[in-house]
Amino acid sequence: MKTKPQYDIPLSKVDAIDRHIITILRNNSRASYTDIAKEVGLSRVGVQARINTLIENGTFERFTLIINPEKIGIHVSAFFNIDVEPQHLIRIAELLSEEPCVTSVYQMTGPSKLHMHALFVDNREMETFMKEKLYVLQGIISVDCQILIRKFKDLEWT
Amino acid sequence: MKTKPQYDIPLSKVDAIDRHIITILRNNSRASYTDIAKEVGLSRVGVQARINTLIENGTFERFTLIINPEKIGIHVSAFFNIDVEPQHLIRIAELLSEEPCVTSVYQMTGPSKLHMHALFVDNREMETFMKEKLYVLQGIISVDCQILIRKFKDLEWT
Amino acid sequence: MKTKPQYDIPLSKVDAIDRHIITILRNNSRASYTDIAKEVGLSRVGVQARINTLIENGTFERFTLIINPEKIGIHVSAFFNIDVEPQHLIRIAELLSEEPCVTSVYQMTGPSKLHMHALFVDNREMETFMKEKLYVLQGIISVDCQILIRKFKDLEWT
Amino acid sequence: MKTKPQYDIPLSKVDAIDRHIITILRNNSRASYTDIAKEVGLSRVGVQARINTLIENGTFERFTLIINPEKIGIHVSAFFNIDVEPQHLIRIAELLSEEPCVTSVYQMTGPSKLHMHALFVDNREMETFMKEKLYVLQGIISVDCQILIRKFKDLEWT
Amino acid sequence: MKTKPQYDIPLSKVDAIDRHIITILRNNSRASYTDIAKEVGLSRVGVQARINTLIENGTFERFTLIINPEKIGIHVSAFFNIDVEPQHLIRIAELLSEEPCVTSVYQMTGPSKLHMHALFVDNREMETFMKEKLYVLQGIISVDCQILIRKFKDLEWT
Amino acid sequence: MKTKPQYDIPLSKVDAIDRHIITILRNNSRASYTDIAKEVGLSRVGVQARINTLIENGTFERFTLIINPEKIGIHVSAFFNIDVEPQHLIRIAELLSEEPCVTSVYQMTGPSKLHMHALFVDNREMETFMKEKLYVLQGIISVDCQILIRKFKDLEWT
Amino acid sequence: MKTKPQYDIPLSKVDAIDRHIITILRNNSRASYTDIAKEVGLSRVGVQARINTLIENGTFERFTLIINPEKIGIHVSAFFNIDVEPQHLIRIAELLSEEPCVTSVYQMTGPSKLHMHALFVDNREMETFMKEKLYVLQGIISVDCQILIRKFKDLEWT
Amino acid sequence: MKTKPQYDIPLSKVDAIDRHIITILRNNSRASYTDIAKEVGLSRVGVQARINTLIENGTFERFTLIINPEKIGIHVSAFFNIDVEPQHLIRIAELLSEEPCVTSVYQMTGPSKLHMHALFVDNREMETFMKEKLYVLQGIISVDCQILIRKFKDLEWT
C-alpha cells in the first residue's frame, strides 16, 4: 500500500508527539499501539491514552479505508457545478446528499452554486443519473459537469 | 467517532462478502480481524486472506485517519481554479503538489485549468500563500479562489 | 471527387487488411469489390465476405454521399448552443431532432446545453427558423448562434 | 445498416429527380445504377449521366462510409474550443488539421476561437494528445474540452 | 460643417459616376444638382435622372441631418444588451422600438439578446427609463448597460 | 423614400420652431427653404437664418444620405467586440478607424474592449479582413464577431 | 488615530480656504473651531461661518466616526453581486437596505445586478444571513459572494 | 445634516453604553462630551474616559467628515474590476493606491482581480485617467469599469 505525502499540521494546536502519531496513523490507520509506541518513544499505554483523548475531543473523525475506484469498476469521477434558484439551495443540497453515487456536496463563496462530486461505472450511468435524478429536481437552473482527467495530488482532507 | 453514509459499490466487481468487509473497514479501519470475522460469518483466517488479496491486487489503497481540521487550528478550506498557460499546466501542477498546505490538484474536462484544494490557519495565511507561492509561478494567468461555507456531505473518495 | 485525409484507426480492433478496406471505402464507397480485391491482395469473394462481416457486426454504419451544401443552395451553416431548463433537455432534444434543417443534436459534458447544427438557404431562413421553431419551445432559456466562417478540416465522424 | 432521416434539400437548385437520386445515395451510396433507375423511373444510362453531372459540377463531394467508432475501439468523442492569440489562429488551425485524431477544425462567428473535434481510444489517449500536441503549440491561450455524452441526431453535413 | 471619411463602396454594383455622386451627397446632402453636375462632369438633367433612379430603385434610403447630441442637451449615449426569454424576443423588440429615446434595436448572431441604443439627457433620465420602461417588460431576464466614453470613428451606416 | 420615426428632442435646449425644422430636415435634408418656411410658418429668410445659426453653433453636424447597403452589394453587417491589451487600446482604435470597411469604433464603460462596426460584401471578405487587418495587429487579445440578423429600429444617432 | 491620505478636491467648486478646512475636518472631524482657525489663518467666527455655509448648502453630509470592524468582533467583510429579475430590482434593493448587517446597496452600469456590502461576525453568521434573508427573497436569480482578503486603500467616499 | 441608519454592533465585544456612544458619534462626530454625557447618563469625565479608551485600543479609527461629491463638482463615481497578471497584483495595487482620485483598492476572494473605486469630475476626466494612469501600467490585462447609477444605502464601513 502506498505512503502518501503528509499535510503539515500547524504547530500551535497539537504537540510534537501527537503530530508524530497522527502522521503514522494517516499513513496506516491499522498500525498497532505497540508499533506506534516504539516509533514515538512512549509506552503502549501512553499512546493508547493519547489516541483516546484525540478521539474523545473530536480531533480524530474516523479511521477509514481508501479504495482504488477503478478496481471496483468505477471509471468516471465527475464534478458538478449546479446552479439552483437560491430559495431551493438548501433543500436540493440535502436531497442530492442522499444519492448513493454522490460523495460530496458543498456550498462555497462565489456564485450561489452547489459543488458536487460523484462516482459512476461509466458515462452511461452518469447520463442516467443526470436525466433521472438531477434534471428532475425542482429549482435546478443549470448543471455544469466535468470529468476528472488526471490527479496530480490527492489527500483525504476537505 | 462518527459513522459515515456508505457509497454503493457496484456489484459486478467484488462479491457480497468483500463488500461487507469494505463497509466495515471504511467505517472503522482499526476493526480487528476477529470482529470483522464475527460480523461477516467467516473465520478470522479467511477474513485476513481476503483483506490481503484486496491489498495485493490494489483494491485497497490505504488505511487512513480523517481529522477534523478545526480541531488542529485550520479554519479556512479553500478551492482554487487556476488558469494557466497550457504549456505550463503540467509543470505548475507538479510544483503546487509539493506545497504542504495543498491537499489536491486535478486536471478536468472543461477549461484548461487546474483545480486545487488547500487548507489554511486563517485568511492571512491564505493571502501569504497566494502572494508568495501561487502568484509568483511563471505561466499563471489568473486565480479564482473560493472558500468553503458549508459541507452537506463529504465522503473520502475522489 | 476529392480524396480526404484519413483518420487513423487504432490497430487493436481490426486487422491490417480490414483497415485497408476501410480506407478505400471511406475515400470512395462506390469502389467495386474487384477493385478493392486488387488493391488489398485478396480474392473478390474474400473482400465481399469481410465487408459483409463488418456490416453485420455493426462496424459499418452506412455507405453515404457527401454533398457540397453551396451547390444545392445552402449558404448558412450554423451552430447553436441552446440553454434549456434541465427538466426539458431530453424533450427539446427530441423535438429539435425532428426538424428537417437540423443535422445534429448533442449533449456534452460542460454546461447543461444542447449543441445543435443546422443548414439554411440564407440568414432570413435561419431567422424564421429561430423565431418560429426554436424560440417558441417551452423550456428554452437562451440560444447562442454562430455561423461557420471557414472549415480547415472536415471528416465525417462524430 | 441503418437508414437515416433525410435533410430536406431546397427545391430551387436541383430538380425532383436529382433530389430523389440524392436521397437514395445518401441512404446507400453503393446502390447500383440499375436499382436507382428502377426507383426513380429513368433509364440506367440517364441515371449515370445525371450522377456524372452532379459529380462534375461539384455537387457530390464524396461517396463515403460511416463507421461506428466504438466498434473500432474509439470510446471518447471530444469537442475542443481553443482560444488562440489571433495572430496565430490560421497557423494553429492548419497544424491541428494535420493531426490524425482530429476530424474537424472550424472558425466561426462569435469569439475568435477554433472549434475542433477529435476521437480517442480513451481518456488517457486524450490527455496525452492535449499534453503533447495541443498545449505545446505557441499561441494557445486556453483550451476548453467537452466529451460527448449522448447523440440525439447525427447526419453527415457540416 | 465637418467632412467625414468615406466608406468605400464596392465597385461591382454602381458605376464610377454614381459612386462620385454618392460621395458628394453623403458629405452634403443639400448640394444642388448644378454643383454636383459641375463636379462629376455631367449635365444638370443627367445628374437629376441618376439621382431619381437611385431613389426609385431603393439605393438611396433617405436624405437626412446628423445633429450633435450634446448641443441639444443629450449627455448620455447608452448601449444595452438585453437578455430576454426567447419566446418574447420579437414582441419586446417591437415594444422597445416604439420608445422615443431608443434609436436602434437589433438582433444578431451570438447569444439571443437584443442590442439597443438610446440617448438620454443625463444618468437620472436613463435610470428612470430603465426602471419604468425596461425592467417592467414581461420576459426581460437581465439588462447590461454601457455608456459611451469615446467615439473614434462614426459613420452613419448600420 | 421612407419617412423615419423621430427621436424626441428635449425641449429645454431648442425652441419649438427649431425642433420643427430639425424634424423636417431629418426626414428630408434636401427640403427647400421655401417648403420648410411654409410648413413652420416663417419667412424663407427667417428659416435660412435659423438653419445657418444651427450650423454655425455646431448643432447641425452634417446633411447626409443614407444608403441601403444591400443595393450596393453589401450583404454582411458585422459588429466586433475586440479585447485588446489596455496599453494598445488607443493606438488600435486609431488604426482600425482608418480601415475603409469600418464604419464605427467606440470605447464604452464595461470591459476594456473596442466596439467596432464594419460592412462587407460577403463572409469571405469579412474573413479576409479579420485575417489580414485585424488579427495581425499587435496587442489584440481576442475578437468576438457577430453578424446582424434583423433590424427592428435604426435611426442615425450615436 | 491614523491620518488618512486625502482625496484631491477639484479646484473650481470650492476656494483654497474651504479646501483647507475640508482637509482638516476629514482627518479629524472633532477639531475645534479655534484650532482650525489657527491653521487656516482666519478668525474663529470666520471658520464657523464657512462651516455653517458648507453644512447648509449640503456640501457637508455628515460628521462621523470610522470604527475598526475587527475590534468590535466583525471578522467577515463581504461583497455580494446579486442577480435579480429586473422587475424586482428596486423592491429588493429597498428590502436589503433595511437589513442591519448591510452597509451599502448600489445599482451600477453593466449587468442589471445589485452590488451590496455587508459585515458579519464570522462565516456562520454570513451563511445564516444568506439562507434566511437573501435566498428567500422573491425575484433573486443568483448571488455571487466574495470575501475581503486585503485592503490596500480605503477612503470614505462613494 | 442627515441622520443615517445604524449598523448593529454585535453585543459581545462592547457594552451597551459604548454602543450608545458609538451610535451618537457615528451620527455626529462633533457632538460635545457634555451632550453625549447627558444622553447616555454618565458624567462628562466618564464619557471622555471611555472615548479615550476606545481611541487608544484602536476601536475608533478616525473622526471624519462625509462630503456630497456632487457639491464639489464630482459627477462620476466609478468602480473598476482590474484583471492583472498575478505576479504584478501587489505592485499595481500599491501604485493605484497612490493616485489621488482613487478612494479604495481591495483584493477579494473570487477571480484574482483588484477592485478599485475612484471619483471624477466627468467622463472625460475618467477617460484621461484610464488612458494615462491605468492602461499604461505593466501587468494590466483588462479593465472593467462601471459607473454608479443609484445608491440605495451607503454607510461608511468597509
Can you walk through the features of this model?
In chain A, strands 3-5-2-6 form a four-stranded antiparallel β-sheet. Chain A has five helices and six strands, in the order αααββαβββαβ. Chain A has helices at 16-27, 33-40, 44-56, 89-97, 123-134, and strands at 60-67, 76-84, 102-108, 110-111, 113-120, 140-154. Chain A is elongated, with a radius of gyration of 20 Å. Chain A has two domains: 16-56, Winged helix-like DNA-binding domain superfamily/Winged helix DNA-binding domain (Arc Repressor Mutant, subunit A, Orthogonal Bundle), CATH 1.10.10; 69-147, Lrp/AsnC effector binding domain/regulation of amino acid metabolism (RAM) domain (Alpha-Beta Plaits, 2-Layer Sandwich), CATH 3.30.70.920. In chain A, 34% of the residues lie in helices and 31% in strands. The two termini of chain A are 22 Å apart. Chains in contact: A-B, A-C, A-D, A-G, B-D, B-G, B-H, C-D, C-E, C-F, D-F, E-F, E-G, E-H, F-H, G-H. The interface between A and G is medium-sized, with 12 and 15 residues.
